[in-house]
Design brief:
Shape: elongated
Strand order of the largest sheet: 1-7-6-5-4-3-2
Helix content: under 10%
Number of strands: 7
Structural class: mainly beta
Strand content: 35-45%
Length: 117
């Protein structure tokens, strides 16, 4: 883990204690699970697992600000992606279907908006 101390915008779960999503490197990262919580005075440290790797987030309760204390290295990100791959492929009837958006346009033929798959 790389040690970085940067302020972060974070959304907490309805319980008001644990993080749900946060912004990192220009994108939203969803927290899959909270692995541990430690308290150091007015600081709470959350070690969280995401699809991008493991992070350590800090909440300073006296000023109500969130910080990223540690972020995953490139190797940690690659390992996280590798561990996240499914072990067995889902059968065809359980896979999610991509839904194409139906385009509406003025004029044209009666076949506008159909997608051939």
């Amino acid at each position: 883990m790389k040690k970085t101390m940067q302020a972060v915008q974070l959304v907490v779960r309805p319980d008001g204690f644990t993080p749900r999503t946060f912004a990192w490197e220009g994108e939203r990262v969803r927290v899959i699970s909270v692995e541990s919580v430690e308290t150091f005075g007015a600081e709470r440290r959350y070690r969280v697992h995401t699809r991008r790797g493991r992070f350590e987030l800090s909440l300073y309760t006296d000023v109500e600000r969130w910080f990223i204390r540690r972020s995953p290295t490139r190797l940690g990100q690659a390992l996280s992606r590798w561990q996240d791959t499914p072990r067995y492929a889902l059968p065809a009837w359980r896979r999610r279907m991509r839904r194409e958006r139906v385009r509406t346009s003025s004029g044209g033929s009666h076949a506008d908006g159909f997608v051939v798959v």
